[in-house]
Fold this sequence. Notes:
Layout: E1 2-4, E2 9-17, E3 23-26, E4 30-37, E5 42-56, E6 59-61, E7 63-66, E8 76-79, E9 83-85, E10 89-95, E11 106-109, E12 113-115, E13 118-123, E14 138-140, E15 144-146, E16 150-152
Parallel strand pairs: 1-3, 2-4, 3-5, 4-5, 5-7, 5-8, 6-9, 7-10, 8-11, 9-12, 10-13, 11-14, 12-15, 13-16
Amino acid sequence: TIHINSNASVTVGSVLxxxxxxxxxxxxxxxxxxxxxxxxxxxxxxxGQLVATTVTGxxxxxxxxxxxxxxSQAGQTNISGNYIQQAGTSLTxxxxxxxxxxxxxxxxxxxxxxxxxxLNVLLINNFAPTVGxxxxxxxxxxxxxxxxxxxxxxxLSNADWExxxxxG
Length: 168
């Protein structure tokens, strides 16, 4: 069992794997890994920040934030199974240009995506979106259900412009 709390920061260079009977508890702080393999063990995120390129298995979050990039660079999180974002959780997306993965974050789910909680959008690299820019940030092969209850979107450079978020 691994407990990540007290604002700790844990970086795993390649694969963090939970074996049968194994548990990772992320309650505060930050867990960053290229691959989180949880198909045999248990991963509990009740707080903190998860940064992962690949998640093998289902990811059911009850707290904290999932950040595909890492709050300063764009990236993609690929989840092989289902993704459940419950109330009280957030998905933090960075927008730094128009090219997916290299300039803006994406969440790709191989199964179904169930959305709730909060969508936080941050602008990086001095990027200023303009009318007509489009960002597909969540896609799920098995379909999506639910919606983000709250959308925290950055101010746009023109006061007459507004964000249009399509969910579903």
